[in-house]
Give the backbone structure.
Amino acid sequence: MNGAETLVHTLAEGGIEICFGNPGTSEMHFVAALDREPRLRGVLCLQEGVVAGAADGYARMAGKPAATLLHLGPGFANAVSFLHNARKAGQGIVNIVGDHAISHAQYRQAPLTSDILGICAPVSDWLHRSASPLDVATDGARALQAARAGQIATLVLPADCAWDAALAPAKPLPDIAPKIADAATIARIADALKSGKRSALLLRGRCLEREGVEIAGRIARATGARLFHDYFTPRITRGAGLPRVGRMPYFAEEILEFLGGLEQIVLVGAPPPVSFFAYPGLPGWMTPAGCELLTLAAPGDDTVGALAALAGALHAQTTGETVTRIIPDAPPDVPLTADAMGAIMARLLPANAILSDDSLTTGPGLQKYLADAPAHDAVFLTGGAIGDATPMAVGAAIACPDRKVIAVSGDGAAMYSLPALWTMAREKLDVLVIVCANRSYNILNIELARVGAEAGPKTLAMLDLGNPELDFVKLAQGLGVPATSATTSTDFAAQFADAMQTKGPRLIEAVIRV
Amino acid sequence: MNGAETLVHTLAEGGIEICFGNPGTSEMHFVAALDREPRLRGVLCLQEGVVAGAADGYARMAGKPAATLLHLGPGFANAVSFLHNARKAGQGIVNIVGDHAISHAQYRQAPLTSDILGICAPVSDWLHRSASPLDVATDGARALQAARAGQIATLVLPADCAWDAALAPAKPLPDIAPKIADAATIARIADALKSGKRSALLLRGRCLEREGVEIAGRIARATGARLFHDYFTPRITRGAGLPRVGRMPYFAEEILEFLGGLEQIVLVGAPPPVSFFAYPGLPGWMTPAGCELLTLAAPGDDTVGALAALAGALHAQTTGETVTRIIPDAPPDVPLTADAMGAIMARLLPANAILSDDSLTTGPGLQKYLADAPAHDAVFLTGGAIGDATPMAVGAAIACPDRKVIAVSGDGAAMYSLPALWTMAREKLDVLVIVCANRSYNILNIELARVGAEAGPKTLAMLDLGNPELDFVKLAQGLGVPATSATTSTDFAAQFADAMQTKGPRLIEAVIRV
């Protein structure tokens, strides 16, 4: 058994089922070892951004990490932006990064020699380079332990440590139990919520899945506290039958209004709210003056357990008000708008769907309808590196093969990760991709004025995606995914309805000109 | 004048004409400043890999740096792999990386807050974050000085340093003169070359452009030394009328044979040769035992000046033998092969073309014909991060608008940088892209056996690009570039001839099944 084989068996024994990868020569022994481990499935992606985004989406929906396989420093570098998103989302991933054989890494002039640890470090919570084939299995077990605790764990695997003889796989290490609030904290926050002050719970992490949302609903019912989540939250289970958790707005002045009047905010797995960007003359810190921040659970803590303990202390046993499904009217036959799309999607969304959304200017129009749709999971762009809606949909569909996945991306964002479509076709994933084609980086047209930049024609040209127009139907077909274009609400309704009735990958180019 | 305006004017005053960019909110003031600086042209790319590859290709052909504009840590991260290639090629680039306003960077929970200096450092020779709008112009002048000396210079520009008031642009700093070999070194190497030992010159850098190659030819003629260059050399001017500079092979055992028998190698801007990867049982160090290495010029030194001094010391005034153009026979009508492609391209290549090649398994078939084609420049994949042939072609075409540019990429490689095609269409660049579609990561099929990995069906599936087949005609059309597919030598000859006769972007999918 060589080093690579001990690693692959160790990962499988620890519960890793999927390895998203884009291998090269230095990873050939790891790839070959997959042939001798039936519990571990390799999923080929044609660019490392897709690898990382898919691992992120998988972790969000599977509740456990996948592995990735990346090719030296440059291969890892291509994954960094979506690993950044995953890290902001608190999702664990085991990155296996092939490196030159130890004897070869001394040659700085070899094309692929790089400061590989330097490239990996800024987005890795756990980072190690194996020094011997005999260490690879235990290194892998340590990486997996870190990833199962929600960390980005990166193991650099020199080619000779993969190909040289090793002993045996390593036993999985025990899971690290997340921290949970102590009784004094629970009592203090319970008292605070009974004080009559205007209160809210800001939720993030596992507590935004069904169990946590239902407990939070009981707390809201018992105390009158509002529930809300970050604009870009890693995952939320929401919709009909679940307590409503409001979405904090995107723009700073809207957040200030949304939070205005609150006297205390209980943080449940969430950091204090700040704005996405700074703007001249506006604060970045969004907590209203005089509003107290109380931490029930820090990011990474046991948020569901803490909510359950808090509900117990409050004797909050009554189910709160839940969302009633609203079936919007079918829009008239009009040129397509975000609102029309949202209404149509909310009418037709199947129960238990998964929505992956990184659309910046179309998204708000959709979301206001979808919050009242049948219960579903939504995953959002947590780290600001646009284009991860489609890779995350790949991972979500592999984690949940029986659920319909819908990815919604802007045209600018979709161009970051086109190769994700090919993996959808190859793996026959049940994903509908909707590209909201407004032919511009429209968010920047809005932001230009907000930051006070004086735009002339050269500026506006740098935000324009219409010269030439991207044809997402051809792009999808070129990657093996059937596709259609919709320019009216009637087109879109028919195409969306058809996509909901059929299985397999599909793309709709939603042309939005208004 | 705000900080961004002082920076843009400083860069333009220092000779920067092009800024390849993919901006976001934090870069809006820099973009707006372009409207007030007619000497600086913004070129929009839809992914940061294209930005970096284009800046690399521009520098190789313009002989001076371009600027890039990147969006915080994740935007820079997407550029890292092709910046790695550029750095290996010794090409200077000025990266401007927008960052949060200084007051906002303290908020680690903001989605786009990252360890931005940590992300930039591994591929930056020069790295600085501006601390005040008053410093931005002088920081920019320092970055430009570093880039003009062949360095990757990265200036992190906080949004408030861009939008706040500043004073004036900064004057360009003087160029740093490259080192040149001293008289004793010249004399020692001249003596060595007259010793009668079997000798070769390994050339890299500016000395592989016309002037240097011609001087090297005189030295070869006077001393009997062979001339050769790295397999992946940044740029070489070659072909009919120029002295022949041999290309070192790719695989280790072929390199050993190629260098076998040499008693001394003079390094001219090149590091000692090593293999691309390590292989079990093969050395990575490629200099034959007992062969002496003599350094005439280190990487980054004045290679042309050193060669001229050496030629003077050797009284090497006679032009050496030059390449005679060979017009290969037109291949018969056969299913397309790399050899047929190479013969056709060598028959029809216009004078003074630029070839950008990152094809790994098709490339050698082409190159053996193209070395005897009309004189042209070739640029190669220097850092092993595949997919830069098309972005480099963007940069080369912008640097040299009157020359035909031909990019040759494998299908696996081309998938890394599809958005480059859109910039070609938008800027109406005179580029023919040839995608060598063998429907696999074919280099890995070869490498599997060479590294001794035992491949089963799961392994082979991870190297297969045929399920589903990529349709590069549709992909190109989707990005605004006219395209055709060629499966026979006759198809390819007709399509290539047509492309050479017409201006503007064009793609040929060269389907190679053998």
In short: The CA atoms of residues 219 and 311 of chain B lie 6 Å apart. The longest helix of chain B spans residues 72-88. The radius of gyration of chain B is 24 Å.
